Amino acid sequence: MIGARTTMVRTSIVLLLCLAPGVLCAQSAENDRPHDAHAGHAAQVDARQQSTPAPPGDHVHSPATTDLPSFIPTLTDADRQAAFPDLGGHPVSNPIRSFVLVERLEFQASEEGGDAGVNAMAWIGRDRSRLWVRADGSSDGGRTDEAQAHVLWGRQFARWWDLVAGIRQDFQPGGAQTWAAMGVQGLSPYWFEVELTGYVGANGRTQARLDLDYELLLTNRWILQPRVEVNLAGKSDPERQLGAGLTTTDLGLRLRYEWRRELAPYLGVMWRRKWQGTADLAEEAGESTGGPSFVTGLRVWW
């Protein structure tokens, strides 16, 4: 019995000695293996970095470097110069331009009959300095009852605003009369077009005119245009049927359709009113002091 036990102990010791190296090797391999996918990826990157030498003079800023595809060319100094050229201080061009606008070429129908009227303006010059020409006129039954023209020199003094000065020549009513004119014109906040002009004539006569226009775009082609004109006089002028103070006001509302931007027919209504001494002179002459009229006309520019 003792011999049999001794034999079994010797056999167990031999088996343990044979299996021990395999177990130790397996445990060592398990300890050396990365514990997750990120660690495995980092090990691969480290191995790639060690196997790929960095170009001379370059500094590696990140653990991994990315090579550009072969179809993307290398950036050169010529490419940089083409992207950012030297303009060399090239001056901005400011040529002489011109513009002509016939704002209203219309026929007015009222209880007293039909009238024809025209309002036009033109300018020529550069961005900041221009020569302006304005013309207004109306006729009643083929007879010209009002006609005047302005020649003004304009200079821009603020964004959207010009200071103008020149002369105004009246042809009708009464005899010809010349006025010195000075005023401002431009685009006010909320897109109102403004013309405010004062006049000084012979014998100390003075006048002033205010024009306000606004264009309301209903669509890209339909435009509704309200308009206000106010005239004042410092002294009475019975020859031209003008009284001192507020002389006349015109309120208009015109709806135009732009077939082209340069050509637009319109329809509308206008209220003209004479005030104070001008109304008294009209009543003494047996004329109307004002009323509504329907208008149709054409707006053209080039």
List its salient traits.
302 residues; alpha+beta; Porin; twelve-stranded antiparallel β-barrel; 4 helices; 13 strands; elongated
What is the beta-strand fraction?
over 45%
Number of strands: 13
Point out poorly predicted stretches: 14-65
The computed structural class is: alpha+beta
The helicity comes to 10-25%
- Which CATH architecture of the domain at 157-301 would you pick? Beta Barrel
Shape: elongated
Q: Please, could you describe this protein's structure?
A:
The protein has 302 residues and is of the alpha+beta class. About 17% of the residues have low confidence. The protein is built from 4 helices and 13 strands. The protein is elongated, with a radius of gyration of 46 Å. It starts with a helix and ends with a strand. It has a domain of 145 residues: Porin (Beta Barrel).
Secondary structure layout:
Blueprint: H1 2-32, H2 37-51, H3 77-83, E1 97-110, E2 113-125, E3 129-140, E4 143-158, E5 161-172, E6 177-188, E7 192-200, E8 206-214, E9 216-217, E10 222-233, E11 245-257, E12 263-274, H4 276-284, E13 290-301
Antiparallel strand pairs: 1-2, 1-13, 2-3, 3-4, 4-5, 5-6, 6-7, 7-8, 8-10, 9-10, 10-11, 11-12, 12-13
Q: Short description, anyone?
A:
This protein is an alpha+beta fold and 302 residues long. It is built from four helices and 13 strands.
